[in-house]
Amino acid sequence: MTQAPDFDPAEATDRSARRRRPAPVWALVAIVTAEFLVLLAAVIFLVVELLIARPDSYASAVAVLVLTVIACAWVGAIVVGVLRGRAWSRAGAITWQVLQIAVGFGSFGGAFANIPLGWWLIAPAVLVIVLLFVPSVVAVTSARDEHGPRVF
After folding, report:
1. Cβ atoms 129, 97 nearer than 8 A
2. 88 and 45 Cβ atoms separated by less than 8 Å
3. Are 109 and 134 in contact, with CB atoms under 8 Å apart?
4. What is the pTM of this model?
5. Strand partners, 86
């Protein structure tokens, strides 16, 4: 009878042996993922509208679409960065949340004021900013590259 190889789940080379992420990290991932999905839905909506409806200005419609695609990619990268525990993801997340808060406050007034939309933008942004400063989140998202930047 052969003996099964020793398996140590705490072995450092085993990816599944990493510490579990604390609840605030999962809350952060959930909220930022929800923001990513909303942006993805906006991209799909804008593409469909660009194909179906006739915009007043094609240049403006394409510009808004491109900016939304860039924002969607940015927030998607933040989600991946948080899941990988990368330090840069905190700065990107805070920048995105500040922009989201600015748009939220902007939606309180003006010709197209939408107060509920403003609160729907501001509330998760403030929650994400608070979560980004929780010590357990900072500890999990503090990984940096082992080597310096590559010079070509």
Report:
1. yes
2. no
3. no
4. 0.80
5. 143
Evaluate whether 89 touches 75 at the Cβ level (below 8 Å).
Answer: no
Whole-angstrom CA distances from 27 to 79, 104, 129 are: 12, 21, 12
**In angstroms, what is the C-alpha Rg of the chain?**
21
* pLDDT digit string, tens, across residues 11-51: 444 454 456 888 999 999 999 999 999 999 999 999 999 99
Q: For residue 128, how many C-alpha atoms fall within 13 Å in the half-sphere facing its CB? A: 31
Q: What is the pLDDT of residues 56-68, one digit of tens each?
A: 999 999 999 999 9
- According to DSSP, residue 18 is labeled S
Judged by DSSP in three states, 124 sits in: helix
Per-domain residue ranges of the chain:
23-139
Task: Answer yes or no: are the C-beta atoms of 101 and 121 closer than 8 Å.
Answer: yes
77: burial class by Cβ within 10 Å (0-12, 13-18, 19+)? Answer: middle
